[in-house]
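Practice problem 4.
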């Protein structure tokens, strides 16, 4: 759409249309009800700090932002330099795949677990970026765009849900700031890092290099993760299971870097413990609840 507007009226027309659409978005957002005011966090809550798992997730988002930014920043110049026609083919295929994936498979990680979605889609994202280095026709460009949209459409919302899983309710705003901030750091850095590579070696080596960061985080996610929310369930938000910072349970540190054979036994024990804590909390008088 933007390409057509530029061809028709130039960049002033493009910016005018973008401003008009933004105004419509503001009007629609203003009509959304604000909701009931939230209760303030308990006075005895501990100061907020970033947990180790949040840094692992933040590093993952930086790597995804590097790959995502490299593609969206340099795909227009790549398409024009290689004579593959109009860049709208890429963005149309990417948008259709990303939107359709989120509509159809938005709840996939709730059913099969975060891990079963995140790890394959990170590899799929790397494969899509790498495929751009070998694109020689419009059909290959559309296929790479579709794969890129499929990977981005699944990985980003699932990682966002994982960030929410690791956060206490009173810290959701801070968690989202960390999540989106680290992604934007990667997107911004990609212009500087991969721009220098593209200028010196060309677009194809640049895309091959940009495919490296996402799978580099797979090992970190495999070595350190909480089995509960990683499998799709939510951690409890109350009592002794709340950890200082973002509501990560105290047992997380003990679950990191352990062997697989005993993992299922530990998950079963932890779920039973959480269930017992919930039942005890329901049975306790309201005045005695934390």
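Answer key:
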């Amino acid at each position: 759409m933007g390409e057509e507007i530029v061809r028709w009226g130039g960049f002033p027309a493009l910016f005018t249309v973008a401003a008009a659409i933004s105004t419509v978005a503001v009007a629609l957002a203003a009509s959304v009800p604000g909701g009931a005011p939230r209760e303030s966090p308990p006075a005895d809550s501990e100061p907020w700090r970033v947990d180790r798992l949040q840094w692992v997730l933040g590093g993952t988002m930086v790597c995804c932002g590097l790959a995502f930014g490299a593609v969206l920043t340099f795909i227009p110049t790549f398409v024009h330099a290689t004579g593959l026609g109009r860049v709208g083919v890429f963005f149309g295929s990417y948008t259709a795949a990303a939107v359709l994936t989120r509509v159809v498979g938005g709840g996939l990680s709730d059913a099969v677990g975060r891990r079963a979605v995140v790890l394959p889609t990170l590899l799929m994202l790397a494969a899509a970026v790498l495929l751009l280095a070998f694109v020689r026709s419009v059909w290959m460009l559309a296929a790479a765009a579709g794969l890129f949209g499929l990977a981005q459409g699944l990985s980003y919302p699932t990682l966002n849900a994982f960030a929410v899983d690791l956060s206490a309710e009173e810290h959701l705003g801070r968690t989202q700031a960390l999540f989106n901030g680290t992604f934007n750091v990667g997107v911004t850095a990609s212009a500087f890092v991969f721009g220098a590579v593209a200028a010196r070696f060309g677009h194809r080596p640049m895309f091959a290099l940009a495919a490296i960061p996402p799978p580099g985080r797979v090992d970190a996610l495999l070595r350190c993760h909480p089995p509960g929310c990683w499998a799709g369930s939510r951690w409890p938000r109350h009592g002794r299971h709340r950890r200082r910072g973002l509501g990560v349970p105290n047992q997380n540190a003990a679950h990191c870097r352990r062997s697989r054979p005993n993992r299922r036994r530990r998950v079963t024990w932890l779920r039973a413990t959480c269930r017992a804590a919930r039942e005890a909390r329901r049975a306790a008088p309201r005045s005695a609840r934390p």
